[in-house]
Amino acid sequence: MVRSFTLLEFPPLTNRLVEPPVVYIEGYEGAIYLEQREVIARHRRAIDSLRQVALSEDASRDLVWRIVKECTA
User: What is the mean pLDDT of residues 14-23?
Assistant: First the structure.
């Protein structure tokens, strides 16, 4: 089962401390936060894969407008 997730990455704080990244997954029974390095790396790879096949903002907008026009014709 594929679930949506959010990769939370935080900028360095003013005292130069860096909070580690966290993967947040919300489910029917609640949410989980994953902090293991290999889990973070796997989710980063998933995001990179999605970016490679995703349309640009302009191409996405054009696609949505074409679908709207088809559905309202």
Answer: 88
Would you say residue 2 has pLDDT above 70? no
For 8, the enclosing helix (H) or strand (E) is: strand 6-8
Q: What is the pLDDT of residues 39-67, one digit of tens each?
A: 999 999 999 999 999 999 999 999 999 99
Tokens of 63: 């696609």
Whether residue 7 contacts residue 47, with contact meaning beta carbons closer than 8 Å, is answered with yes
Structure tokens at 21: 């990244």
User: How far does the chain reach from its first CA to its final CA, in angstroms?
Assistant: 36
Secondary structure letter of residue 51 according to DSSP: H
Helix (H) or strand (E) holding 54: none
What number of CA atoms fall less than 13 Å from residue 41's CA on the CB side?
3
